[in-house]
Design a protein that fits this description.
- The protein folds into two domains: about 35 residues; about 90 residues, Nucleic acid-binding proteins (OB fold (Dihydrolipoamide Acetyltransferase, E2P), Beta Barrel).
- About 25% of the residues lie in helices and about 35% in strands.
- It contains two helices and five strands.
- A five-stranded mixed β-barrel has the order 1-2-3-5-4.
- A hairpin with a 5-residue loop joins strand 1 and strand 2.
- The radius of gyration is 22 Å and the shape is elongated.
């Protein structure tokens, strides 16, 4: 009579692998669609580039300034929406206001090099730290 142990072991192994894949997919759906934080930042757009060896993502950087003469802080972000990318490409060097969602816990950089994903951009606007209120 043939042994059923190898057959049971392979069924158990396949079940464990399928369960791991389902749990990973569920985890990814949660971290990509449920944000840890949301907010807005404004500054001057300094960089926007498409980066990555295998997974190409749009990565950008704005300089935030709290007051005139202060050393600006850099804010790095990722953009997934092509319409926002085109809008930012046309605004290089200009003041922009970015609305973002932060997604923490992503296991790979294929979704972006940062955890800050820009969802909306507004170009121009009033600069509250400008010494000349007309700028």
């Amino acid at each position: 009579m043939p042994s059923t142990f190898p057959r049971r072991a392979s069924v158990l192994l396949i079940s464990v692998v399928v369960a791991a894949i389902v749990l990973f997919a569920l985890y990814m759906a949660i971290v990509l669609h449920w944000s840890y934080s949301e907010g807005e930042r404004a500054g001057y757009l300094q960089k926007l580039s498409r980066k990555g060896w295998l997974c190409k993502t749009w990565e950008g950087e704005i300089l935030l300034s709290s007051m005139p003469g202060a050393i600006p802080e850099r804010f790095a972000f990722t953009v997934r929406d092509e319409n926002v990318v085109r809008q930012l490409q046309a605004a290089m060097g200009q003041r922009v206001q970015l609305s973002y969602a932060q997604h923490v816990g992503l296991p790979t950089t294929c979704f972006g090099e940062t955890s800050y994903f820009v969802e909306k951009a507004v170009v121009g606007g009033h600069n509250p730290v400008s010494p000349n209120p007309g700028n």
